[in-house]
Design a protein that fits this description.
Number of domains: 2
Shape: elongated
Radius of gyration: 30 Å
Largest sheet: none
């Protein structure tokens, strides 16, 4: 009897994979700059597919990739990949959080200023025995 191949289970999705799947579900808005980049890159991508059929151009592409790895170390390439995976807050959320930070700073500054004034006045009263 032939042995049946064992069924392989997929590993559980990580948080990053779930976030990536969720971000792929909704279409992203394309700004004018992205549209311009896509328009400029379109002929080059088609040219790359066309030239990829020839061995000489594949060899040149390998050399260029190698040079790119030397010029741009893996740290920068991996940093750029991480930045692209970040879920950035919306404009409204950024504005709300900025206002919360400014409000906290104002309240905390007022508390520190009042304590400074009160303790300064108290020490002048105790040490110098004077009052305004």
């Amino acid at each position: 009897m032939a042995d049946k191949p064992k069924r392989k289970l997929r590993p559980a999705q990580t948080v990053r994979e779930k976030a990536k799947a969720a971000s792929n579900a909704k279409p992203k808005k394309r700004g004018w700059l992205r549209k311009l980049r896509a328009l400029i890159a379109l002929p080059f991508s088609k040219l790359g597919v066309f030239l990829g059929k020839y061995k000489l151009f594949r060899a040149i592409a390998k050399v260029l990739r190698f040079i790119g790895k030397i010029i741009f170390p893996s740290y920068f390439r991996s940093s750029w990949a991480e930045i692209k995976q970040v879920t950035w807050p919306s404009r409204r959320e950024s504005w709300r959080l900025t206002m919360a930070v400014i409000g906290f700073a104002v309240v905390f500054g007022a508390i520190v200023a009042s304590l400074d004034y009160g303790l300064g006045h108290l020490f002048k009263l105790i040490i110098l025995g004077k009052s305004k």
